[in-house]
């Protein structure tokens, strides 16, 4: 299933995107963005995207990480200039110079990181910039009274005199929303407001959101949590890779279809790969190399069980943001668990740092090879040797001969091109950079290899080579955890597939000929419960 970049609601036969709520039907959109294109050096973050917001609706902006959601919001509020496209607010074409201008036009944004002053009172935060003044001076009592009224208008029972920092993040979010409403926002943008809230706090937030909707405010809501999106939104716009997939009524779009639209399928790429034999039931060792027992971390990932045996590839499937990377981070000591137990070769183990994991022969190859991985200014040799160096500690020199040997071995084995250890890594293609990164970690002779999106954004040839390498490593007895957004790839390589959603492991599938991507998508969409 592919969509052309600017395809507008492709598969909604009936009046695409007409708001669901009857009272909003005849209205004009309060915001209409058309053909929005935003480029950053080397990245087209948005390519001809449309978005319409109607008064009195909650509109979910959906898409995996990097799809362009935040960029679209920033294009609307004037944080980023657009390269093409128009923004019409209340029927008039507008270009905002920044968020302040957008706010003056009635468009307020509450970001994920609360953008308030910790040490000031709730009242001061709500009224910041709009203090009640008398004879030019701030009237503190008047300001506090006004703040109380604004809080009451949202049914928020928060003491205006209390210090902001004395409240939970959830309450701070509500204060931020209240502050946004002081200026009578007609459009309220919430970019992942619920990421760190618990269930009750989300309910409290939603009560406020519903109330604002009832008063005719258009709310643009970004969240990774499908459950919440279905609970609160009337319509949604789905983005993928900076392009518009479509605009839908929430009630008309089953979850499975939403997930498919968000993930997309790059079938044409996959068809070019040889049809690798599906890997069925591994001949695995007797004891898992690692075993997670109720391992979890508050605010990051809920407690999960996971075994990874030597010689086995365990795939992690789930939407971006579903907790796959967070799970991996607990397995290599980048984050510390606060509940549960991790066993390495049967031994209860606490991994406090990636270095400790390395000592237990557990390595992680990062998703973002540009920012956390490859150092572009260093040579291929230097990049590979970094792994050995990390293993030994930074102060112990690695003998030149040993380094040369290891580097030559992996350049050869992984087919790194150019096959020149002195080439500057930053000049290599993405696929070859990924191989250099793999070489770095393989040089430490890991027993468990955690691969986070190792084939993302690389060409088809390199992708096939990396897939083949992963299969080979497992055959030689390495335990591998393989994270990829491409379900086809996960299914091709994995013996077992752990499925993640909303920062929770919701199930596990044993791979086999009868297992298809649809099975995984169904599991993601149903959340592990029978839908
Ligand atoms: P989302 O909010 O959907 O996760 P973003 O809008 O943050 O996605 O990012 C869309 C794309 O644009 C990504 O590829 C991201 O790396 C890129 N991007 C976002 N902001 C910038 C920036 N300031 N400079 C360069 N690239 C950026
Ligand atoms: Mg974002």
UniProtKB/TrEMBL annotation:
Q: Note whether ATP-binding occurs among the keywords.
A: yes
Organism (species) = Cellulomonas chitinilytica
User: How does the record say this protein sits in the membrane?
Assistant: Peripheral membrane protein
| Alphabetized GO MF terms | ATP binding; ATP hydrolysis activity
Primary site of residence: membrane
Instruction: Report the protein name in the record.
Output: Sugar ABC transporter ATP-binding protein
CDD domains found in the cross-reference section: ABC_Carb_Monos_I (cd03216), ABC_Carb_Monos_II (cd03215)
Indicate the segments forming the ABC transporter domain, all copies.
31-266, 271-527
Family annotation (PANTHER family): CARBOHYDRATE TRANSPORT ATP-BINDING PROTEIN MG119-RELATED, GALACTOFURANOSE TRANSPORTER ATP-BINDING PROTEIN YTFR
Q: Which superkingdom does the taxonomy of this entry point to?
A: Bacteria
Where are the coiled-coil regions?
A: none
Q: Does the keyword tRNA-binding apply?
A: no
Q: Where in the cell is it found?
A: Cell membrane
